[in-house]
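Q: Hi! First time doing this. I have a protein sequence and I read that you can turn it into a structure. Is that right? Here it is:
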Amino acid sequence: MMRAAAWAGRLSAAPRAGTAVVLGALAALTLPPLYVLPLLVVALTGLLWLLDGACAAARSRRQAFVLGWCFGFGHFVTGLYWIANALLVDAERFGWLAPVAVAGLSAYFALYPAAAVLAAAWVRPGVARVVALAAAWTLAEYVRGVVLTGFPWNPMGSVLAIHPALIQGAALGGVFALSFLVVLMAALPATLAGANAADGTLWRRAGPSVTAAAMFGLVLAGGAVRLALAPAAGSAPADAPRVRVVQGAIPQTIKWRPELVREHFNIYLSLSRGAPAGGAGSDRAPAAVIWPETAVPAVFDGSAEYTRAVAQAAPPGGIVITGVVRRDPRPAPGMPAAVWNAIIAVDGRGRLLARYDKHHLVPFGEYVPLKRFNPLPKLTEGRVDFSAGSGPVTLSLPGLPPLSPLVCYEAIFPAAVTAGTGPRPGLLLNLTNDAWFGTATGPYQHLVAARLRAVEEGLPLVRAANTGISALVDSYGRVIASIGLGRRGVFDVALPEPPLAPTVFTRLGNAPIVLISLLILCLTVVFRRLRP
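A: Yes, that's right. Below is the predicted 3D structure, encoded as structure tokens:
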């Protein structure tokens, strides 16, 4: 290990940058669904050794920024390569953009790890630098989730979703607090052989690594205790509402073909009307049939004909909840009709019970930023940009607990999945169309993000995805029922035990971990100035 650290410290600028790219890629292999967790220790330990060498070789901190950017670039290219699938749906028009999009987005997102590594470079090597890196990395992830509408995809804390016990801490501090712990635990072994390691005692060198192992044990044990005290996974009261989740598995390449609209609608209709899918209480009709985002490949203009067609899928005395493209039936004179990516609820008589319009839109997927000056196209059907809804809401629907609806990637935003006012929901409902992501790692990562929201908020989550992965997740992030990626099918399931009391994260959100990380960075700067 000492030799590896010495080798990393002697590298010149170009080999150092190339090594950082490789280490960033290794770190991405620890993300869902691969979870090769030991590689994160290798990646972050190697990054710190490279940083120690860069700081020793040059007075300028520029090399630290470049080093962090290279690490981030390798990390995001490997973790987000599936973005290319969205551009290959219509490969004739957009296929040429696939490598440009992956490289360009990765280059931008890499600025955040670059800033984190630059901040760590201002701190002396050793434990202090590791702690500073963990704090700076956490702040960088938080900012990445906010700036330019935000994209908090694959925070480092998501690697702990390999087991439900490891993510229970999200109920206290959210996924960014988990990211702080993950970076800290994975980077502390760098002190075994980093700069100044040879000058310390055995405990001074090995102590941080022992501490990291103990921290991991505490995280695991604490989560295991919480789960042991929780109701058994899948348990539900005898009178708990049942829902049927339908996964049509219609490829995005043919989803909007006009000649196939009726066929695709009939697929959802036949799946919705099928026999109960088993399980305790399966003789009871579900309170709701749930279809995914834009399940009906036709524009909803508020017409009764549309809602009556959807109502054919309603169970006896129940409702249908589905994603639709909603169009304003009465646009202003001379103006194009506004469209929304929406969720509607319809009863068995075709009455529209509720509606929710997606408010967190996907850049270039649902609208083109700075459209007047931007030559890049919108990737989805239609020339008109989607309009944004007013924000999170709580819907009250017959037979179901109050629910917070989420469309697609609205589920990836911590502390932004429920309305801040009014009664607390008892359920998160996420309708999504992950067919855009292909069958690679993207859909698995998206599901993990939704599971983390369930733990943070202490609420069960129902997820309906066009091509997968549809799932019922309880308030502890445990997957109770699911339909695999690319499979067509349904599951009937009773909603889990009532939601938990508001969690610490529900009450405080991201503020504590952001403030703690800022305080750590401020203290490291102060101590650096005080030390001779």
